[in-house]
Amino acid sequence: MKVGFIGLGVMGQKMATNVLKAGNDLTVFDVVKDNVEKLVGIGAKAGNTPADVASKCEVVLTSLPNSAIVENVILGENGVLEGASSGTVIVDLSSITPKTIRKIHDIASKKGVEVMDAPVSGGASGAEKGTLTIMVGGSKEVLEKVKPVLSSIGKKINYIGNVGAGDTVKAVNNLLLGANMVATAEALVLGKKAGLDADVMYDIISKSSGSSYALTAKYDNYISKGNFDPGFMVDLMHKDLQLAVDTAKDLKVPLINGNLAQQMFETARAEGLGREDISSVIKVFEKWADVEVRSEK
Ligand code: NAD
After folding, report:
1. N or C end: fewer C-beta atoms under 10 angstroms in the chain?
2. Which residues are catalytic?
3. Run of H or E residues at 182
4. Ligand 1 atom closest to the CA of 232, numbered from 1
């Protein structure tokens, strides 16, 4: 299939590589030339603009930092929609607000261009291995058309509902992860300050009702070792919590824990931890309590 890929960062670089390896005819674009060169080096073609990519492809995938950039890359000058023709399918793999993808969908559909949201979960390692979980919003028929391409980047392709449903479930999931990460960090610091051994605390809680993915995925490999290389960056979690906060505001739904969690990640950013793993939020609590939750093994 003729596939375009726009946004070749941490996730996009690896996903585009897998699309290419699956035998697709790939044309790529990124504002950072080095990112484009890496893909060209393994057999992709370089497009001059998003419009140029779209004019050469049946399916255009985007993996971009935020809602404003996705909107601009698709609807803006020299954007994907300018080069697309009736029947072109745009699949946005970024995590953005549901209302942005719905706006893009409504404008694109006037030109006969299909738009789907397909945010991913599984991080950089899942992107590299092609084992991401993909949450799709849009038309079921169009999903069947693009499934061979999505299968090259993800193992679990979940149809969620109409356009925006994928971004919604992603925002709800990351709201929970963010809130759980903050609660886990706070609890571990309290336990340590109260005299518990960090490993003992982990062994008990990970098998008890206080356990969560935030604890089991982030204690052994990150917190206990004091290794906060991402993983999933604080800056991105902060952005994802904003998606939930914005959605809640639009719907007039109070989001107490979500707003609190976002402020904790804002505090972590203010402490210079924006590019570190989300588990580094524990360093803020550790500073306040003057203890460190590390393994003594
Ligand atoms: P990133 O910042 O590494 O990559 C974004 C890429 O977009 C960069 O290469 C950048 O140069 C490019 N870009 C920016 N503006 C552009 C423009 N106007 N035109 C063309 N290219 C442009 O981000 P990432 O970590 O790869 O994340 C991409 C998306 O995937 C985000 O929405 C993120 O929330 C989501 N996501 C990330 C992870 C993760 O673990 N990193 C996991 C799941 C989902």
Report:
1. C
2. 170
3. helix 165-193
4. 40
